[in-house]
Write a structure and sequence with these properties.
8 strands; about 45% helix; mainly alpha
């Protein structure tokens, strides 16, 4: 999908059509309408690129890493991210605003493309392309709603709890929309995935576009988050039967953007695209290069890291594990006696998850769904069913399989004393496998209680502010509705999440 930067001249037209200030500020006088903007299938294709361009997880990476226990304050930090690092979260915070506005901007873009597609009649030789465009638009709309649910729903597993605003249409400027229930939002997500699957062809060779395998991954994630482990097991296993785990060389190459062995879907980032830049450092507003969430210049000791790897995360990663090589820069200064010396200046753990590609430091593709996550979802399903021990068909067997791949050798089969211990092992493995990819906050929210885990920073990382722990039951594991939305939609104030 390197051709993104070749179609930005058309994206300007699309931006006029879809730009909005918040979830309901949609239909403004004088705006170019769909009939004028989209006349051909080629126009729809350009519009689809525009929808993809609105999808970005760099803010999620920043917020999840800073708010939880993935990071410590770097030696070049000039005050970046200190509020999130101290668990300060309210309706005026940056994360809820940018997540809400950004996701609804992408949903609105998808809705307008879906609406516009009804005005275009494809030629016979364009029908497959037309269907694929429409299918991806439905899939992207589902992805936007799933993202919002993950952050703004208080209880993923309760269909009667409040979710977000289910937006499957282009509202007018005077509509005052309120939150739907989880059941209604998930119903829309599943319906959109069904539509997408019926429209998309069977080509799954390019992981930079949402295809049928991406649809299946969304089904697996949605089912796991809802606690429907029967479905989660089925969907994740179907993907595991097709996608293998990367070996050590492939795993390292995956984070250099030269191997896609276990990538089901990713957002490509290229020199010259709209995300080619530093973005907002230390903020969930983010944007720009993924690696710029942690360093100003590059992923080395000399690259001005303003965040470093948290010690509690570092202590989980064995140096013989390829994930150590991927995540920890070789220029790091590692103090084996850090707990005794208690001097952060002697223990500088530089993050190398996003070293850069195409000759641009810190710029890498954003991995959304990988087969290793599907394996860990399958492991959850086994644990939920009580099958957490054993050499086959168990949580232990799958975690061993993942570790064998990452160590490149036969590892010990783990044994768990209880279901809680098995879920704790899954959380630890997700913490290492998916480090700095935007998962930790959501993982603690949904699995923390089952694993008896919450945010747990090493004392050396939190001595300066005392924000060392946060239980997974804390209200701040659900984001508040942002105050910016209340200005346009005051009725939502009555539906604010508890604690805010």
């Amino acid at each position: 999908m390197k051709n993104f930067n070749k179609i930005f001249y058309l994206f300007g037209l699309f931006t006029v059509l879809v730009a909005c200030n918040d979830a309901i500020d949609i239909d403004q006088p004088g705006r170019l309408d769909a009939e004028a903007a989209f006349k051909t299938v080629a126009d729809l294709q350009s519009g689809l690129y525009g929808v993809y361009d609105r999808v970005d997880t760099s803010g999620e990476i920043a917020f999840s890493s800073i708010f939880t226990d993935e990071l410590s304050i770097g030696f070049d930090n000039g005050g970046q991210g200190l509020a999130d690092y101290a668990f300060v979260l309210n309706a005026g915070s940056t994360a809820p605003e940018v997540f809400w506005v950004g996701a609804y901007g992408a949903i609105n873009a998808a809705n307008r493309l879906i609406e516009a597609a009804q005005l275009v009649t494809p030629e016979a030789d364009e029908q497959t392309q037309y269907n694929n465009i429409l299918g991806q638009a439905y899939a992207l709309r589902a992805l936007g709603h799933l993202f919002l649910q993950n952050y703004f729903s208080t209880n993923y597993e309760d269909d009667n709890a409040l979710g977000v605003i289910a937006m499957d249409f282009v509202p007018t400027i005077d509509q005052q929309l309120l939150r739907n229930t989880n059941g209604e939002v998930y119903g829309l997500i599943i319906a959109d995935l069904d539509r997408a699957n019926s429209l998309l062809d069977n080509d799954t060779s390019d992981p930079t576009f949402l295809n049928k395998d991406g649809i299946l991954a969304m089904r697996a994630v949605t089912a796991a988050y809802r606690g429907n482990y029967t479905q989660a097991a089925t969907f994740s296993q179907q993907l595991l039967d097709k996608y293998g785990l990367a070996n050590r060389a492939e795993y390292e190459a995956m984070f250099l953007d030269t191997d896609n062995t276990e990538i089901i879907f990713k957002l490509e980032r290229s020199v010259g695209d709209n995300y080619d830049g530093q973005g907002n450092t230390g903020s969930p507003e983010a944007g720009g290069w993924a690696g710029a969430r942690f360093a100003f210049v590059d992923a080395t000791l000399a690259g001005s890291p303003y965040f470093e790897m948290g010690r509690s995360l570092f202590n989980l990663i064995d140096p013989a594990d390829i994930r150590y090589d991927v995540n920890v820069a070789p220029t790091s200064v590692i103090d084996p006696d850090y707990a005794t010396n208690n001097d952060p200046a002697l223990d500088i753990l530089v993050i190398q998850k996003y070293p850069g590609s195409e000759g641009q430091p810190l710029m890498n593709d954003l991995k959304i769904f990988r087969s290793s996550e599907m394996l860990l979802i399958r492991a959850e399903a086994y644990a939920d069913a009580g099958s957490f021990n054993g050499a086959t068909n168990s949580t232990a067997a799958l975690i061993k399989q993942l570790r064998d791949a990452r160590f490149g050798t036969d590892t010990t089969l783990p044994v768990y004393a209880s279901e809680a211990e098995a879920f704790a092992a899954i959380l630890d493995e997700r913490r290492v496998e998916l480090a700095f990819e935007g998962h930790r906050y959501k993982d603690l929210k949904r699995l923390g209680s089952r694993a008896n885990q919450g945010v747990n920073k090493d004392p050396i990382d939190c001595a300066f502010n005392g924000a060392c722990t946060l239980p997974s039951t804390d209200y701040r594991f659900t984001l508040p509705l942002p105050i910016i939305e209340f200005n346009a939609n005051p009725g939502l104030r009555e539906q604010q999440n508890p604690g805010y």
